[in-house]
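ingest -> validate -> predict -> emit
validate: passed (alphabet ok, no gaps, 482 aa)
predict: started
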Amino acid sequence: MVNSNTGQLSAFPQQPRSNQRFAQQLPPHDISAEEAVVAAILLDETALVKVSAILQSDDFFDVSCKAAFEASLLLEERGEQITATTVGHELERLGLLDTVGGEKFLAEVISKHFTAEGVEAHARIVRRDGLYRQAIEGFNLLLQKAYEGGADQESVISMAEELLLNIRGAVGSGDFQRISEILEEMLANADDDENLSERVVESGFHDLDAQLNGGFQRGNLIIVAARPGHGKSALALNFARHCALESTGTVALFSLEMSGIELAKRLLASESGISSPKLTYDDEHEVELQKVMTAHGSLSDANIYINEQGDLTVAEIRAAAKRMKAEQGLDLLIVDYLQLVSSAQRYDSPVASVTQISRTLKQIARELDVPVIAAAQLNRAVEQRKPHIPILSDLRESGSIEQDADVVMFIYREAEYHKSEDPQDWPPDLDPRQAKIIIAKHRNGATGVIDLHWEENLATFKEYELYSEPAGNPQETSFSDF
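emit:
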């Protein structure tokens, strides 16, 4: 690119003059506010509790104020009184007293700010400037990546989205609402809550919906977990199909393992009842073809949108879902499956990465006010014990999935563990068609077990009572029944 000032070629375009001017400035900070916070902590024993709910040590720009704040936190953890003397001794123990300017610094701070009044307002100033500096640091890194260019533009876009998501989350943290305000909000929205069907997305399975207080609640993160081959994708497709066809909702399905063609074939087989649907005319299979074409027409009208990109980051999922919500509406978001989601940032371990992903999926559910269903793979521990019933600890190597989820359900098909055996050696009461959906966590309701029917040839689930012999209502099942 030609430099308009020198007439010479330059490797990169010059930064705008405004950016050059900002680069010469110190990042946002307010030393007076930081000193006022430290002084309040030294003067008022309740001040630290107030400010620690608002800001963190990294929000301080001045190293002396930051050190004094951190020393105060250490004293608080040990249950010791916080005064200028004790903070000075703690700084000396840490080898930081000379760094901050000695006890003279603490005395000067108190002399300049001799009251704890307004400490929360001062803390918010410190927090605000800390967020600005965080944004500057992040966007400088983003700017560097953008200047480097290259073919991987998606990683730059993903980094920008994740940066904004983290900052947005930080801005909203630490705020409290008085119970009276929450109750007033409930009364104001009472009319909306009267129509339960508008607040839930039905699963399509009567007993499961009953167990989940009507269906999947908007704003909830629902984890559907199982070992490979037990039907995670199939059950997710069941949910998508019912939401789109029976409830005329809009579904966004992020498939990180299967292609759109594979998913379409499964949906077509499930809808038509034909295990290997053909779309070309055949005299010998005219009846089957008619069923397939009828199913094809129904599915074509369904608002199911599939994203089959295999290396999506959680920030890209959030951005795509947000666009879908604005342009098409959105009633259900499905991610298949969670451990395949990428992260724009590097983490020390896969556990840390999955933790960030599950937390962000929960944020997406609340932000977009939709249920987010994420399929997840269980670890091998379930295969090492008998019976092979999944439990919550089977998720614990996968970050904070269990803590972040509002609902955790497991798919348990005992017949899957006997596939390599001769059917004559199977337990006498083993039903290869039976699948149990174990609701192991339900934040807003009861846990329990639901029976479904598994159709192997169609790779789909159906209501168990429709296939049980003799016909009738399914018996209630509890964990103790296993």
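The first strand starts at residue 200 and ends at 201.
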